[in-house]
Specification:
Distance between the termini: 29 Å
CATH class of the largest domain: Alpha Beta
Structural class: alpha/beta
CATH topology of the largest domain: Rossmann fold
Mean pLDDT: 89
Length: 466
């Protein structure tokens, strides 16, 4: 079966972008690598061409010097890097699409008369304003450098980015990835596993689907083959790492292995990690979660990338087993734990039954394996514990509630913690009788589904794929 139909679940974004273009507004699209920005831009490009519009499409990664911009604009090289930018922006009758815009900025900053990135940004802003005054068509730009975009919209780059409408492209829903896999002939159970493993990333989903179909193996086995030596994702991540400094690569391995506090990184690096962490943030490879003024930690938002990091054998850090990688980084349970770690202030929501639930910033979040029980996630806050049972495969029934109660009691006995809340999370909902619902309320159990997870995710501001 030809795998040529991977573009799904982006109709709303396309409609929004086309609406902005109709109004001649400029748009900045941002999101993680592999999340579908390039595919989205290519789709918009094709629609505009079909409508008879003039479009100039630029891949920022492929522009290696200002001369490349002169070639694209079909102009003779004139003076310096400023002229290469002006030649592009003077194409008033073209909709200009620039994929990975920040890569283009960084390239231009290396050429005269620009001395740094700020100089490039100021000049592009002036050209953007001039183009708008002359009635030019829209400029659509994209970037994977989430930290760069965050700082750019708040600090010295803000004047430029005020010229653009901001559009965040988040992960696809688990349901959309599931439908994508089904569309390519994958069985229902395997389709659910692909949705879970890819964490909403269509690029990863495509690679897993291709591997499952080609080799007739399970989605989990397919993913591990992809991240093993010479696998497609191993090649992809290796190329990504080659563009980083040695200190940045080592920091990523540290964070992936749970050494994610600033002082822990500093102890292992033997130098101030601040400039390296800043660059990793700018490139969207790590996120800083600030709990309090003195307590911050770093996470790797791309869980498949984290799994690849864990699979690498690093001197003094070792190599992690497949099972440990799956438990710590892959799957729905690992994603929920990362969401809980991302809470920086008290979040108040209503659960599936309409009950009030408050989730505080946790000092620690981890899974627990006892003598005869396993707990998917425990969140600690002072001497209190929040116990979570996590269910992904279909709708949860009352037996999951009983399992949660039993595990919470055993944990409290073994660790001497007061259980503040017992929470059952079932992504696809519940199959419960009215009598069971009333009993759950009496027992003080809270129930969450995909709807509540997305609400928590929205409040944290960290996009993890729910």
């Amino acid at each position: 079966m030809a795998l040529n139909t991977y573009f799904v679940d982006r109709e709303e974004e396309i409609s929004t972008i086309l609406g902005f273009i109709k109004a001649r507004a400029n748009v900045l699209i941002y999101g993680l690598r592999g999340i579908g920005k390039t595919t989205l831009l290519e789709k918009v490009h094709d629609i505009l061409i079909h409508e008879g519009r003039k479009v100039l499409y630029i891949d920022g990664y492929e522009i290696l010097s200002p001369e490349d911009l002169f070639v694209i604009s079909r102009r003779t090289p004139i003076m310096d890097a400023r002229d290469s930018v002006r030649c592009i922006f003077e194409m008033l009758d073209h909709v200009i699409i620039i994929d990975e815009f920040t890569s283009l900025i960084q390239m231009l900053a290396r050429y005269r008369p620009f001395g740094n990135v700020e100089d490039v940004v100021k000049y592009i802003r002036s050209q953007t304003q001039l183009r708008r005054k002359r009635g030019g068509e829209s400029i659509i730009i994209s970037s994977s450098a989430l930290g760069f975009i965050k700082r750019a919209t708040m600090k010295y780059f803000a004047p430029l980015f005020r010229e653009f409408k901001l559009l965040f492209i988040g992960p696809m829903s688990f349901e959309a990835i599931y439908e994508l896999a089904i569309k390519h002939g994958i069985k229902e159970e395997e389709a659910r596993e692909i949705a879970e493993l890819s964490t909403g990333n269509p690029f990863y989903a495509r690679k897993i689907i291709e591997q499952v179909i080609a080799q007739g193996i399970s989605p989990r086995e397919a993913l591990f083959k992809l991240i093993e030596s010479k696998g497609d994702l191993d090649i992809y991540f290796t190329a990504l790492m080659e563009n980083l400094q040695a200190e940045e690569r080592y920091i990523l391995h540290l964070i992936a292995r749970g050494r994610n506090r600033f002082y822990e990184i500093e102890e292992k690096l033997y130098k101030d990690p601040s400039p390296y962490l800043k660059r990793l943030e700018d490139n969207g490879l790590v996120l800083k979660i600030k709990k309090t003024r003195k307590f911050s930690q770093y996470i790797i938002p791309d869980k498949v990338f984290q799994a690849w990091l864990l699979s690498q054998e690093i001197p003094s850090l070792g190599k992690i087993s497949r099972e440990a990688i799956y438990v710590s980084s892959l799957g729905f349970e690992a994603l929920v734990r990362e969401l809980l770690r991302s809470i920086t202030s008290v979040i108040k929501i209503r659960d599936w039954l309409g009950q009030s639930l408050e989730l505080p910033p946790f000092r620690a979040v981890y899974n627990v394996s006892g003598h005869d029980y396993e707990i998917d996630a425990v969140g600690l806050r002072n001497n209190e514990a929040y116990v979570f049972e996590i269910h992904f495969w279909g709708k949860a029934r009352y037996n999951k509630v009983l399992q949660l109660i039993k595990n919470a009691e055993l944990f409290a006995k073994d660790y001497g913690k007061r259980i503040k809340e017992k929470v059952l999370i079932s992504y696809f909902g519940y199959e419960l009788t009215n009598k069971e619902k009333e009993k759950i309320k009496e027992q003080g159990i809270k129930l969450l589904t995909s709807k509540e997870l997305r609400e928590i995710q929205k409040k944290t501001g960290v996009k993890l794929g729910f």
